[in-house]
Amino acid sequence: MGESMGVQAGRVCPGCGEENSIPLIYGMPGAEDFQQAERGVVALGGCLMPEDVAAFVCRSCDLSWGSEADPTADEAELAGLLGVEHADVVRALGSGWRREPGTTGEDGVAWFVSGEPAQVAIGIQAPWFVLDRPAAAWGEVRQGPLMGEGHRFTRDDVLHLPDVVADAAEVIASRRRRSFRWCRTCRRVAPPETFSASAGACEQCQRAAEERAPW
Description:
The protein has 6 helices and 13 strands. With 215 residues, it is an alpha+beta fold. It has 3 domains: 1-70, no CATH class; 73-178, no CATH class; 181-212, no CATH class. A 5-stranded antiparallel β-sheet has the order 5-6-7-8-9. Strands 2-1-3-4 form a 4-stranded mixed β-sheet, covered by helices on one side. Strands 10-11 form a two-stranded antiparallel ribbon.
């Protein structure tokens, strides 16, 4: 069974337009597969692999559709803003891009992030785009690519110098990963802005602990 479960963010059903699709898994299901299917986070596609394999099924209209290689709505928007194909984005910048929350400003820059937790950000302000670290806090005001401190590129760099762009993105991602911390409660990795060093826990676990406290 694949690692991705639950409603797939950014996967808009072509049949009904709802963002309510879950992964389809094929082959002989095990006990865990049945449990996940009962929870509604995956769907069982059967033991036989069809010729045209659908990767998702919509929980709203039951349409089986798409593939893992298809761009999400955010990835398609990113490719459109850059003026390139989704395959060009993947080759130079990787996949998994999504809108960065809380960073829409008056400068007209569209920000996206990649990685979980977010490891690198891209801000687009034609004709430039900049690669930078993700916002350190919700609502952080960013500078536009023409003034920012990140690595600046153009559409032509994505098309003709994808390795250069990829290397710049990986430098940022590597530095970001070195700042991650492990929560001693949920055992998951957390970025520094959502980690309480004094408690040794992520923000979510710390809030839960406070809610359980007797005072």
